[in-house]
Specification:
The structure holds two protein chains of two kinds. By secondary structure, chain A is an all-alpha fold. Chain A is extended, with a radius of gyration of 28 Å. Chain B is mostly helical. Chain B has two domains: 89 residues, Helix Hairpins; 184 residues, Cytochrome c oxidase, subunit III, four-helix bundle (Four Helix Bundle (Hemerythrin (Met), subunit A)), CATH 1.20.120.80. Chain B contains eight helices and no strands. Classes of the chains: A mainly alpha, B mainly alpha. At the A-B interface, helix 2 and helix 3 of A face helix 5, helix 6 and helix 7 of B. Chain B: This is Cytochrome c oxidase subunit 3. Chain B: It is found in: Membrane. Chain B: Keywords: Membrane, Mitochondrion, Translocase, Transmembrane, Transmembrane helix. Chain B: Belongs to the cytochrome c oxidase subunit 3 family. Chain B: It is a multi-pass membrane protein.
């Protein structure tokens, strides 16, 4: 226990250095060659881009949530080119169920499968309405 | 002949001392002082062990898929974690604490990483080729049309558009974080870095939700195969990129980066931009054009 805490001492200097004041704002002395000539303008530009994109994210998220329709079940037609089951997947029930199996929207090769009790607990409320 | 065999014995002794003591040993052969800016790496067992280990991991995957017993192969995962940790620890020691990474070494690492990114691009290029092969001349089995008959495509203006916004925002915020690090202000760099990590986690969660509710799967003909191969591979790259960014975040918190010298962080950011660009390609080609 003591040796484990002793090994954590490598964190001591970074933490104490961080709590000290950050680099002085006279950046012109230490300006690295790679940064462009006007860092304030560049940083302002990237702040603008970032904040606008976060706004766009919020809008698209609201738009995405508006049309969420989890209970809908597509009509089943036994097409030959869909739901191909030539080789079983290497997990339990791999002969019918894919990895991200959704018992509401995914059908087996002959039709929609009966839900197991675990699936009923998780997905049942979407299928039968709230 | 005698001098050659002596050198071999001495370097083997150095190698053994390194391997069994777990720390950098003094190498006994009398070389001249290094006068070049290049880094001649000390003998290290990790590449060889990693090579054998990756064989074991590949064998594990093959056995799992073909339902052969995995009992003799479970050593693969813990050995991978140990080898990876040891190798990366050695590189960090050589770079940050021993100062071997001169400008020349940094540019060499950067060039190597660019070549790696090009190889990743080729990987995605091949799957895009497969997609275009099937989409541009749809075969009669799927109904001579694209998307195939009976397949409900995802609406591109819902989940995929939000995912695009998330990734572009995360690219912008990581660039901002990088600029602040170069400027010297580590606090704002940390805050914007955490925002980037948050946005990428939101992307992964959103993509998982989409997968969980999708009405088609990978075994739904060539459309399903192409779609899930491309988006799945991209998702794995996002997860890997996030792990890389997280690792660099920890190193940044431990103050192992300076405002001028932070090769690992720069390369992780480039990887993230690459992942973003591949997603834009996926979005416009697979989701919008392909539906």
């Amino acid at each position: 226990m003591a040796s484990f805490l002793g090994k954590l001492r490598f964190l001591k200097s970074p933490l104490t250095r961080r709590l000290a004041t950050s680099v002085d704002a006279s950046y012109k002395d230490s300006l690295p060659a790679k940064v462009s000539g006007h860092p304030e303008a560049e940083i302002k530009r990237w702040w603008a881009i970032t904040l606008w994109m976060i706004g766009v994210c919020a809008v698209t998220r609201v738009y995405q949530m508006m049309d969420e329709n989890h209970g809908k079940r597509p009509e089943f037609i036994p097409y030959q080119h869909l739901r191909i089951r030539k080789k079983a997947f290497p997990w339990k029930e791999g002969s019918q169920k894919t990895l991200f199996w959704c018992p509401i929207t995914n059908a087996g090769s002959e039709g929609y499968l009966e839900m197991t009790p675990e699936e009923e607990l998780k997905w049942g409320k979407y299928l039968h309405g709230h | 002949m005698k001098s050659v065999s002596n050198k071999f014995l001495v370097s083997a002794k150095g190698f053994a001392a390194y391997f069994f003591s777990g720390k950098q040993s003094v190498v006994y052969y009398s070389t001249s002082v290094v006068r070049t800016p290049y880094h001649v790496v000390d003998p290290s067992p990790w590449p060889m062990i990693m090579g054998a280990n990756l064989w074991g991991v590949a064998a594990m995957f093959i056995c799992w898929v073909n339902e052969i017993s995995l009992d003799s192969l479970y050593w693969g995962i813990p050995l991978f974690v140990l080898t990876f940790y040891s190798w990366v620890r050695d590189i960090i020691n050589e770079a940050t604490f021993q100062g071997f990474h001169t400008e020349k070494v940094q540019s060499g690492l950067t060039l190597g990483f660019i070549l790696f990114l090009i190889s990743e691009l080729m990987l995605f290029f091949s799957f895009f080729w497969a997609f275009f092969h099937s989409a541009l001349s749809s075969s009669v089995e799927i109904g001579c049309c694209w998307p195939p008959v009976g397949l409900e495509c995802l609406d591109w203006s819902k989940v995929p558009l939000h995912n695009t916004a998330l990734l572009v925002a995360s690219s912008a915020s990581i660039t901002l974080s990088h600029n602040y690090l170069q400027w010297g202000d580590i606090w704002v760099a940390t805050a914007t870095y955490i925002a980037t990590l948050g946005l990428s986690v939101m992307f992964i969660k959103n993509q998982y939700e989409e997968y969980a509710w999708s009405s088609f799967s990978i075994s739904d003909g060539v459309y399903g195969s192409c779609f899930f191969m491309l988006t799945g591979l991209h998702g794995l790259h996002v997860i890997g990129g996030t792990c890389g960014l997280l690792f660099c975040f920890v190193r940044m918190m431990l103050l192992q980066f300076s405002s001028e010298h932070h090769v690992a962080l720069t390369l992780a950011i480039w990887y993230w931009h690459f992942v973003d660009i591949v997603w834009l390609g996926l979005f416009f080609i697979i989701y919008i054009w392909g539906s």
